[in-house]
Write a structure and sequence with these properties.
Elements lengths: L2 H8 L22 H11 L2 H7 L17 H4 L13 H11 E2 L4 E2 L3 H12 L5 H7 L9 H12 L10 H13 L5 H10 L3 H16 L2 H6 L3 H24 L1 E6 L5 H13 L12 H10 L3 E5 L6 H4 L1 E5 L6 E5 L1 H13 L9 E6 L6 H5 L2 H4 L24 E2 L2 E5 L12 E8 L10 H4 L3 E5 L14 H15 L14 H4 L10 H24 L5 H13 L6 H14 L1
Parallel strand pairs: 3-10, 3-11, 4-7, 7-10
Antiparallel strand pairs: 1-2, 5-6, 8-9
Helix pairs in contact: 2-8, 9-11, 14-15, 21-24, 23-24, 24-25
Length: 568
Amino acid sequence: MSNDQTLNLLFDNTISFNKDVFANKFPIVRTGVKEYKSASEQFSGSLKDKKLADIKEDTKLKIDNDNKSYKDLFGSVASVGQSYFSDDDFGKILSILYDKEQQEFILDKERLTTIENYFSGKKNDKKEQQKNNKDLKRYASPLAATCRLLMVLFPDYFCPIPTPDKVDYLINKLINDEYLNKADIKKLRSNYKGWLIKWCVFNNILFKIFTSDEDKENGVSPWEAIVRYGREEQRKEIVGLLKENHNIILTGAPGTGKTYRAKEIAVEMAKTNTNLQNLNGDVEKDFIELQKQGYVDFVQFHPSYDYTDFVEGLRPKASVDGFERKDGIFKAFCAKAANALKDENTKNNKYVFIIDEINRGEISKIFGELFFSIDPGYRGEKGKVVTQYQNLIKEDERMPDKPTIEYPFIKGFYVPENVFIIGTMNDIDRSVESMDFAFRRRFAFKEIKAEDSKAMLWNGDNYQVLEDVMDRVNKELIKTQYGLSEAYQIGASYFNKIKETNCKSEYDYSKELKNLWEYHIKGLLYEYLRGKPNTFVLLDQLKNSYFGKEPNTEEGQEIEDNVNDTQG
């Protein structure tokens, strides 16, 4: 019987799940994911044949300078602090799984039971672990290491969810969300007794859920699917928040994709409107199309922006001398939404207005009396206000672009119930606390963290390198000596500036990383540190973190001394 046939028997579950009611309400579990992929690719190549010669029953794996142990080969699969194997354990498990006649690894109930029995006879002692491995920071289970190893040996069957408790958590979540059938899972749990067999079966169920036929055709791995669905979870959370509050502000570190996320939410909200045309699933293109059709709009605040731009003001007439009252971008948008409510065919349509960099404008000067009208509790005509130029509106005013339709704000301006506002702001441009409290009360705030933006890096072949660089810099940034918070961490948009098409070799990639530091990251970090007594020392430490070097403050101190001498 082939390995595929054996696996099919092991994973022959009659589980029903509802693709149309996918509940994206579980956390992203990605610890060590990129290492699994790397280890699988390594092991599936020529290195596999070389290593298999070392596998012998009850024999310790051979270790020498040129040919390190399996433990080192698999990186985080048996890494310190996550899970732990002795070389004896590692060799024993591999020898159990390896079929010498078929010359391949086999996964079946008998072998898994043998592994379970092997570990049940061993004492998992923290002191013993630390005696054998002085770098071990905390107790780590060889059982978790076994699950990680199986993910590497059988990458086409398992998701990167390493421990039984996390698998159980996700399975139960999906049952509670009515995505998986409770009776099916209960039956399987009674059929499979051992912890490792259960992990294999239930992890494989999650693998099937995460890996659609379309994903397989497009080469999307299950770990990429988990990140994508995790992003979907956040998107659904924000959509729910917007529907409930009508006004939200997306805050967060630089480069976390807040503006793109706002457009994505706007498209999601408006795509169910009636009479839509030419939408194709591309967020940027769909947003432009919806903007043309009047369902979404976008403005970016800046210090010179004011009430006449946003609400209404006097503008020069095009053909004759003098001035006339003109709606600002927001009031004109609200007029379309208000008229939609009067039509039976369009009364359920949603209109989404995005204010990018909302905290860069002088809020009270821009909104004026609209502080009252944008309040979710005063939407519609009950929140009507008299604007500064109300006396210039004619009794028979018509819509500028549709003269046959009556202008809805003849008696006063209000924000219709079908208008939703999304603001974006970078916390460190101007702190949230400095915003007008009356304005703040009318918005729900949702933070987009640098960690949340990592999915942006998964489009390229070198995402592992970029993610490592991003992690190193951001972890360094929040150390005590910098005096900075997570709000200063750098989002993935910065690291997406590296173009894969420019990287034909390892040298090209290294050059692109240097350019990214020199022309983008360095300047941003300098602004963070400007005014601190040891700016250049700290900047040099961050540079070393970026390039993965050991801390060295001598160069930074030398620059610091030169600057001080010049100023002195």
